[in-house]
Amino acid sequence: MPSGGGGGWWKTLGFVVFLTVCLLPNTVIGEDIDAEDRLMVDLFRGYNSLVQPVRNRSELPMIVKIGMQLVLLINVDEKEQVMHTNVWLTMKWDDFQLKWDPRDYANITQIRVAPEKVWLPDIVLFNNADGNYEVSFMCNVLILNTGTVLWVPPAIYKSSCIIDVEFFPFDDQLCSLTFGSWTVSTTILNSKQQ
User: Residue limits of the Neurotransmitter-gated ion-channel ligand-binding domain (predicted)?
Assistant: First the structure.
């Protein structure tokens, strides 16, 4: 064993052991990470779900395409003038920060993530009749490698509907559901029927 000089070789050996223990496992683990795990880490590094996904103000208004599938007409209350429905909303938009090349990630072309991980439009039912403006279930969001984001949450709504029973029982009723952003003007976020 070398001697003298204040134990410099121990410091060197300690440093080599430190590098081996700390850095080598990261390299091995990094090589073992599943492609989807790597993709998730890469996509959401620095992503802020509170910021509307536009590169600059010239891209405004941002377009959110909205569709709706009626699952069940639960009830129409003529006296209270309220329609109770079970629906699936469909919201679709582009998020430039959520694009990737599938060749870099084992040809993965889509992923599903929890809704709180991504920016979501604050689309609500304006003609709500019971004060419950939110969707019923915060289901996962589908993200395509092109940056297209698709969210299809189920919802049960009670909406106001002016009902005219003058020609009962031969009347036709037309009840609409009016959706839009609660806090953002149409100059910043524009919803289009899908």
Answer: 36-190
The type of residue at 170 is F
Residue pointed to by tokens 């395409």: 65
- Evaluate whether residue 67 is within a structural domain: yes
Show the domain range for 106. Answer: 57-193
Write the single-letter amino acid at 11.
K
| Distance separating alpha carbons of residues 147 and 92, to the nearest angstrom | 10
| Residue (of 181, 182, 183, 136) closest to 157 by Cα position | 136
pTM of the model: 0.74
Helix (H) or strand (E) holding 113: strand 110-113
CATH number at residue 62: 2.70.170.10
Is 146 within the bounds of a domain?
yes
Q: What is the pLDDT of residues 115-153, one digit of tens each?
A: 999 999 988 899 999 877 677 788 999 999 999 999 999
What is residue 15's three-state secondary structure? helix
